[in-house]
Amino acid sequence: MGIFNNLFKKKEITPKIECPRCLGKGHVNEADIIRLDKELYWAPGDCAYCKKTGEVDASLVSKIAVDEMYLTIERTDRERKKIINKDKQAIAKAAEYKELIDSFVDHIVLSYTEKKASIDDIAETLLVKGPKGIDKGELVRYIKKIIEVKQL
Ligand SMILES: [Zn+2]
């Protein structure tokens, strides 16, 4: 074993803890999403906090919030590292993404409450304006979820 092996050998002393996002399951379910108050932001799926392993380095919790909305399984490893390291660009991207979803939700809330549009009408309008390939059933479920979460 040469000097470089010793230099670059990582010491496995970081204690692991059960992943606080998925509670050790490796995937985030509806109950986790409700517990973390992310109903309008996340769908059930693989856990991005522990990368599906169910456990994380204990130090991770102090680096990034368990409920960091932007840290989802869609992010690449590179992006994930950037988010954890509080890279300015990544933080700006995360804020932009949240704003986008929030304004989308606001738009739906407004259409439903002020304009008295039906769920179906809102979905139809969004399907016309939005990007192609959106599933109407999924959109309707999302609108219903907004109405439920916001107690409209
Ligand atoms: Zn997890």
**Helical content (DSSP H or I, runs of 4+):** 40-55%
SSE order, one letter for each helix or strand: HEEHEEHHHHH
Task: List ligands, each type once.
Answer: zinc ion
Distance between the termini: 66 Å
Largest sheet: 2 strands, antiparallel
Radius of gyration: 20 Å
Strand tally is 4
Number of domains: 2
Q: For the largest sheet, list the strands in their spatial order.
A: 1-4
DSSP strand content? 5-15%
Rounded mean pLDDT score = 92
Gross morphology is elongated
Low-confidence stretches: none
- Secondary structural class: mainly alpha
Count the helices. How many? 7
Features:
152 residues, mainly alpha, two-stranded antiparallel ribbon, two-stranded antiparallel sheet, 7 helices, 49% helix, binds zinc ion
Secondary structure: elements and pairs:
Elements lengths: L2 H6 L7 E3 L8 E2 L1 H6 L9 E2 L8 E3 L2 H4 L13 H8 L3 H26 L5 H11 L6 H14 L3
Antiparallel strand pairs: 1-4, 2-3
The site of zinc ion has 7 residues, from loops.
